[in-house]
Structures are given as structure tokens and as C-alpha cells.
């Protein structure tokens, strides 16, 4: 009898172990399925977030000039990243200085449908603002203009030493060195260092007009116009706007902001360089500051 009871007990133990094993396998399967589906949701959420951020940054480059082009650019970037524009909201602020995008996406599960969960809905959003640039690293031209309340798009002539009361009075400045060679290199390709609002920069002494023809030839190598020019146009100059040009000799002037000037012509007049063009609004790379005066040069920042 005792031998029979032992055999029964062993069989019961084996049966219990099998049941526990089956239950453990089921739990492990459920956990693996859960982790897999959660991982898929996380990946898709990250992809959606990155796509929206990219769309915001690309669209912001069209602000504040063209709100509709910003919307179109955002939609194009979303489509390129497989985001349904029909499930997205693209909003440009009334002042054309911010853009907001919100998108939703349904992510289908692989294993969760076994438990009656077919999909999860994810939602992501992003907002970018354009604001005046307070600090630039590279690209500044060696022409400091005394700040005035210019009208964007109106043609003006920047004149060296034009005197008090002239809107467009400029002076040559020394950036990263002095002399005609350094001045010409900065005029053609932009200063490679960093300049910020609040910096003091030195005016350049001596005759810089010898660079006129080289600057004019370089500018004229690009056949673009004020109404149709590419991003990064060599005719588009970043110019430091300063507190005064009423200085004699080598003096320091205070940077108040940065203007964007589309150069249409460069010539020598009475032994000095004259630059004809128009101030424009333009977004470029740089550190922004919402508290400084808006002079038309903007940077972009994601704020949400």
C-alpha cells in the first residue's frame, strides 16, 4: 500500500509541476508580448516626435515672411517621414513668429490582440519660435551700420562716413584682425568668429576701397534677385547694427543687433565702397533672445 501511495504522490507532484510550468510559460509569453508591444509603441512615438520636430524646424525657416509656405513646408516634411497630414494640425501664430504641430498615430500591436487590445493611439506635438539673434558664430560682414528704423524691402545705399542723419551710414570694422587683406576676406566669406549683442568692435582705419572690384565680381557671380534668391545666398549679408558711426580713427562701437542685407550692387564712389541693397527678414543659425530689439535676423528654438 505504501508503495502505491508513493507512486500516486509522485504522479500528483509531476502533474502539479506541469501545471505550474504551463502557467509560468503563459505568464512569460504574456510579459514578452507586453514588452514587445510597448517597445513598438515607444519606437513609433520617438519616430513621430522626431518627424514633428524636423517639420517645425524646417517650416520655421520660412517665418516670419511667409506663413503659407511655412505650413506647406511642414506638411511636406511630415509626409516625407510617413506622418499622416490628415491626422495633424499645423498652426502658425498671428504674428508669424511661431509654429505648432500636433499629430496622432495609431500603432497596431502584434501580440496584444490576443488579449483584446488591437492598437494604441499616440499623440505628439512640437512648437518652434523665431526670435532675434543675440549671438552669431560665423558669417558677419565687416560693415557696421548705425541702426535706424528701416523698412524691409526698400532699396537703400549704405555709404561710408555719410555723416549724422543719413540712414545707411556705415563704417568698415576689423574682425579677427586688421588690414585690407583681412577686410576683403571677411567681406567675401564672412568673419568666422563669434559676435554678440553687447560686444564692442573696432572700426577699421585706412582705405578699404581696393576690395571693391573683387567684392562686386563675387556678388555678381550669383544671378539672383531680391524677390528670388536661394537660402545661403552669397548676396545675403549679416551686418552688425551699432549704436553710432560718429567716430574718428580706430574706435570701438557697440553692437545692438544684426540686420540681414540683400546686396544688389557694389561700387566705388569718391574713393569709398557703396553698397546698394535692401534689408530683409531672414532666419539663420544663432542664439536667440526675445528681449532684444527685432532687427530682422532670427534664429529658431524648439520650446515644446
Key descriptive features of the protein:
304 residues; alpha+beta; 2 domains; 7-stranded mixed beta sheet; 4 helices; 30% helix; elongated
What topology emerges from the helices and strands here?
Blueprint: H1 2-60, H2 67-80, E1 88-92, E2 98-108, E3 119-137, E4 143-146, E5 155-160, E6 169-174, H3 180-189, E7 194-196, E8 200-203, H4 212-220, E9 236-242, E10 252-269, E11 272-280, E12 282-283, E13 287-288, E14 297-302
Parallel strand pairs: 4-9, 5-6, 12-14
Antiparallel strand pairs: 1-2, 2-3, 3-7, 3-13, 3-14, 4-6, 5-11, 6-8, 8-10, 9-10, 10-11
Helix pairs in contact: 1-2
Notes on the protein architecture:
The protein is of the alpha+beta class and 304 residues long. It folds into 2 domains: 2-130, no CATH class; 138-302, no CATH class. It is 30% helix and 34% strand. It has helices at residues 2-60, 67-80, 180-189, 212-220, and strands at 88-92, 98-108, 119-137, 143-146, 155-160, 169-174, 194-196, 200-203, 236-242, 252-269, 272-280, 282-283, 287-288, 297-302. The strands form 2 sheets. Strands 1, 2, 3, 7, 12, 13 and 14 form a 7-stranded mixed sheet that branches. Strands 4, 5, 6, 8, 9, 10 and 11 form a 7-stranded mixed sheet that branches. β10 (252-269) and β11 form a beta hairpin. The radius of gyration is 32 Å and the shape is elongated. The relative contact order is 0.14.
